[in-house]
Amino acid sequence: MAKPRKINDCPYELDLQTRMQLVEITDNAGSPFLLMPERLVKKKKMRHRIIFVVLKDKKNRILLVKKNSADKETLWEFPCYGTVYAGESAEGTAYTELKKHFYIDDSIKMKEIATLPYLHDEMHVMATVFLAGPFYGTFRHNTETIQDAMFVDKEEFEGLLTFSQEMFDPIITWANRANWLYK
User: Fold this and answer.
1) Nearest residue to 129 (alpha-carbon basis) of 69, 86, 169
2) C-alpha atoms less than 13 angstroms from C-alpha of 69 in its C-beta half-sphere
3) CB < 8 Å & 24+ apart, contacts of 23-27
């Protein structure tokens, strides 16, 4: 068994494997007060922290993806969504998700747009939205987790929203109304 070690920004004396199974339950202001196993948090629909990442390319287009999912209707959504685990920062989770799904390392610029309460999959969460990019490399995605991906410019996106809003995850229309996507 690995010896517990303290991570610089982690207040918990837990090894990494244990921490990656625990989620911080948060109060209404987003402050953590209790650690719980992730499966229990999702089953009981407890408030916790999540991230969304908006990825832009060098032409200021945003990436939209369809994830591989057998249990629900597949909608176009932001490329990265993730649960913030015990002792992890929201920004650290954003970089982890970019690497897992798109093989993008932590050299890409990341800017926090906002942290707000949000209803996601019938759970109240504190969602932090990040803007990553611009991405200049060759685009690749993990085919085990991503079914389809497309970069869209502002005009294409607005046309799709006008005529087919139901094809998007609600967080996308919410972020568009807040004017966060094409700055």
Assistant:
1) 169
2) 11
3) 23/48, 23/49, 23/83, 23/84, 23/85, 23/86, 24/48, 24/49, 24/84, 24/85, 24/86, 26/126
Q: Does residue 159 carry a pLDDT above 90?
A: yes
Do the beta carbons of residue 134 and residue 165 sit within 8 Å? no
Query: How many CB atoms lie under 10 A from the CB of residue 39?
Result: 10
Contacts of 183 (CB under 8 A, 6+ apart): 131
Contact 79, 63 (CB under 8 A): yes
Rounded to the nearest integer, the mean pLDDT of the chain is 86
Residue 166 has pLDDT above 70, yes or no: yes
Per the structure block, which two tokens stand in for 72? 């629900």
Question: 């918990």: which residue's tokens?
Answer: 12
Mean pLDDT of 161-178: 88
Confidence (pLDDT) at 10: 56
The pLDDT tens digits for 42-72 are 899 999 999 999 999 999 999 999 988 776 6
The residue length of the chain stands at 183
Cα separation, 22 vs 140, in Å, equals 30
